[in-house]
Specification:
Number of helices: 3
Number of strands: 3
Mean pLDDT: 87
Strand content: 5-15%
Largest sheet: 3 strands, antiparallel
Helix content: 40-55%
Shape: elongated
Structural class: alpha+beta
């Protein structure tokens, strides 16, 4: 699966969309209260004010889910290499907990080294 299709699949996940929707309702309402001119309201501007927090929330949640940080679950099957020590390589399956590098411990920095093909 390509990076862009994985990103889109993850972004369109129900939990990401719901979190983004609820965030946009709260933040969009606050921004509209602060910025909206009630004497001559602009409906398009008011609606767009809800779109910004929606997109930012979905993007940031998706980007965080696709990182390979220790303790998180892998979003896809991947072969990772520790960039801190360049020694350790691991193969992960989707939803598997990402471990720390046995050499680097708290300083682990996983990077994807290749796609696994099943």
């Amino acid at each position: 699966m390509s990076q862009s299709s994985l990103f889109i699949k993850t972004a369109l996940d129900r939990s990401s969309l719901l979190r983004g929707f609820y965030t946009s309702l709260i933040v969009g309402r606050l921004l509209n209260l602060i910025n909206l001119d009630f004497d001559s309201p602009n409906i398009l501007k008011a609606l767009l004010t809800y779109c910004v927090p929606l997109v930012v929330s979905i993007y940031s949640a998706t980007a965080a889910r696709l990182r390979f940080d220790s303790g998180m679950r892998a979003a896809e099957d991947a072969q990772l290499k520790c960039s801190a020590c360049s020694v350790t390589e691991i193969d992960l399956q989707e939803n598997e907990i990402i471990p720390e590098c046995p050499h680097c411990k708290d300083h682990t920095q996983w990077n994807k080294s290749a796609h696994l093909h099943s």
